[in-house]
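TL;DR need structure tokens for one chain.
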Amino acid sequence: MENATKALIIAGGMLIAMLIVGLLVWGFGQIRSLQQEQADQETIQEIIDFNERFEAYNRTTVRGYQMISLANLVYDTNSRYTETDGYNPVTITVDGLSSEDATDEDLVTYIQTYYDSMNSDQKNALKQLVFECTDVEYDPQNSRVLSMSFRRLTKVN
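>> reply
TL;DR here they are.
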């Protein structure tokens, strides 16, 4: 009889221990799930913040001085991130940048190549040009802005 009582006490202790272990495993799973959700929300917020900086230029009237700012933003952003981190560089193409008949040109390359060698009249003329954003392409892997296309307008809409 004593052995049966001890066996019931041991079985009860084992049952309680299994319940405690089960609760601990469940609790750790909930904590891990919460941490993963927070990390996902941070990633989404980073993408939103990244895109907002570029989408500010997604409009029908963008002045030349704003295009220079956009070129600097793209250059800084592409310099900050690397392709080994899964980052695809942002590209900005402009139709008619240097003349009305020109084909698409890379804005960053144009600014880096020609802007410093321009005289003040040429710089002012560039700053007064008007452009329109015609397309924004997003990276299918992470939904970040991948490229933007602009065209030069002959006059303000």
